[in-house]
Design brief:
- This is FAD-dependent protein C-terminal domain-containing protein.
- The structure is a single chain.
- Helices cover about 25% and strands about 25% of the residues.
- It has twelve helices and 25 strands.
- The strands form seven sheets. The chain has a seven-stranded mixed β-sheet.
- A hairpin with a 2-residue loop joins strand 9 (about 230-235) and strand 10 (about 240-245).
Length: about 525
């Protein structure tokens, strides 16, 4: 096949890709047998001339060399390189016990699946509930305010990302990315995630994907247990011997993948108490901001906003407050989504963003957060957790102590007032909101940085700092507050056999990077052991 890169197609061009490829290759349309989209990105830099930019693989009925010679060295056309998955060969050391995977988020899920596919029959332990029951528990919390510390947006099958936008973008350049996408597609994700520049699944489709992967793990001989929290680890002379579940059940194991997610605070405390090598790390906190989706679409697409070929627009904003020495930025932007209650502890309010696959809510939201360093909370290994918890509990009080979230319009926030009831869009957070001063539930360095950033963001997106735009607090779970230290072999620095992986271990920042980390760790185990 021949590969065409940088093929630009204007928004209103209705010509088929087969015909466009034939024209680019200077062959008759009937010579094109197949066209495969490898990548599609949107170029909206020129609002009056928006286009899609494609990478295509084209199968021809005529010799490829003949076509290439006629094109006289066109740098955008070459022989396509066939994707060949790596053949993983098991190592020499026999595992005495099945590997245990702790946590059913993206890292644990992909690790368990690969291990199961290679005959290791892993035991997968998840402290929350399965996705069917978890969905009901979360819905009840959002509708009634009845919080369940076992089953919520942070804990349960699929991890925190299951109640998010399902974004699959990542800055990690890993050759296994294609394999992760293929796994998700096989499990029911839309096929377009294989080629879109900014792919997403949506929480509605992601739930089905998670369930399908669980079923495959079980079908391959793996075991999945829910409401199974690891409460202790057993190690001797720096080697893992077993783990304790729910304070009573002992599971002997010499290999355990620790994929606990960024909100397993009691597990962090247990690991630290037992001497597992850890360190504090930076994260960010702030608020969620909501706008009518049409405000973002108009800013990003101009006169083309509303075009049927264009999806709900996103944005990425950054502001450096040099006098304060802080950075404010948008995070986890959810086009056509909603702000959701994401608490994992009694007496705390936490916000997050979520979108369904169709992103059709008419409301755009993102986190606006400011960087926090270990120096801000004293540098102790677990002090970042206490820092997060402090502001979540303050937000709980500011919201009325019933899991309603504190809300303030941008106009009130910048003026230092509260109580406005005219909103650009109806607040989407459930179970409810209460007008409050967000300065009462966030550090001054965060609110001062946001106050500087908002007018700057308005210059980039007209209407972003509209006085009636809604801000909801607080967003605290942008990333793990600790890192569980490991070596190049993915194993803990001081306990061999323990593999800290994913977001919770401090080595990933989203669904895709966590999945890749889990996949790579499992491959490392396979290459060094056998069953």
């Amino acid at each position: 096949m021949l590969r065409i890169i940088n093929m630009r197609v204007l928004l209103d061009n209705e010509t088929s890709l087969n015909k466009l490829a034939a024209k680019k290759l200077k062959v008759p349309p009937q010579a094109v047998l197949e066209v495969v989209i490898i990548r599609r990105a949107l170029d909206a830099r020129r609002k009056n001339n928006i286009s899609f930019v494609y990478t295509l693989d084209v199968k021809l009925a005529i010799p490829e060399g003949q076509v290439l010679s006629r094109l006289k060295g066109d740098k955008d056309i070459s022989i396509a390189k066939e994707y060949v998955p790596e053949v993983i060969v098991q190592g020499e050391n026999t595992l005495e016990h099945p590997p245990v995977v702790i946590g059913f988020g993206p890292a644990g899920m992909l690790a368990a699946l690969i291990l199961a596919q290679h005959g290791y029959k892993p035991i997968l332990l998840e402290r929350g509930r399965n996705i069917e029951q978890r969905t009901k528990d979360v819905s009840r919390f959002w509708q009634t305010g009845q919080f369940d510390p076992i089953s919520n947006v942070q804990f349960g099958e699929g991890g925190a990302g299951t109640f998010s936008d399902g974004k699959l973008t990542t800055r990690v350049n890993d050759p296994l990315m294609r394999q992760v996408l293929d796994i998700l597609i096989k499990a029911g994700a839309p096929e377009e995630i294989a080629y879109l520049h900014k792919p997403h699944i949506g929480t509605d489709k992601l739930r089905e994907v998670v369930k399908s992967i669980r079923q495959e793990i079980i079908a391959l001989g793996g075991r999945v247990e829910f409401e199974a929290k690891v409460t202790a680890i057993d190690e001797k002379e720096g080697k893992l011997k077993g783990i304790v579940v729910n304070g009573t059940t002992y599971i002997p194991c010499c290999t355990a993948l620790l994929a606990i997610g960024h909100s397993a605070r009691d597990t962090y405390e247990m690991l630290h108490k037992q001497g597992v090598a850890m360190e504090a790390k930076a994260f960010s906190i702030g608020v969620r901001i909501e706008h009518p989706q049409e405000v973002i679409d108009t800013s990003q697409y101009g006169i083309s906003a509303g075009h049927p070929q264009l999806k709900a627009a996103d944005y990425a904003l950054v502001y450096h407050a040099k006098d304060i020495g802080r950075t404010a930025y948008s995070f986890c932007m959810c086009p056509g989504g909603l702000v959701v209650a994401a608490a994992s502890e009694t007496g705390g309010v936490v916000t997050n963003g979520m979108s369904l696959y169709n992103r059709a809510s008419g409301v755009a939201n993102s986190a606006l957060v400011v960087n926090v360093t270990p120096e801000d909370f004293g540098g102790g290994v677990l002090e970042g957790i206490n820092f997060q918890r402090k502001y979540e509990q303050l937000a709980f009080v500011c919201g009325g102590s019933n899991y309603h979230a504190p809300l303030q319009t941008v106009g009130d926030f910048l003026a230092g007032t509260t109580g406005s009831t005219t909103f650009a869009t109806k607040p989407s957070y459930k179970p409810g909101v209460l007008a409050a001063d967000l300065r009462q539930c966030l550090p001054a360095f965060v609110t001062n940085t946001l106050a500087q950033a908002l007018p700057e963001f308005e210059r980039k997106i007209k209407g972003f700092a509209s006085p009636d735009a809604v801000m909801i607090g607080v967003e605290t779970r942008t990333s793990a507050p600790v890192r569980v230290l490991r070596g190049s072999d993915f194993q803990s620095l001081n306990i061999k056999g323990l593999y800290p992986i994913g977001e919770g271990a401090g080595y990933a920042g989203g669904i895709m990077s966590a999945a890749l980390d889990g996949l790579n760790s499992a491959i490392s185990i396979i290459k060094n052991s056998k069953v």
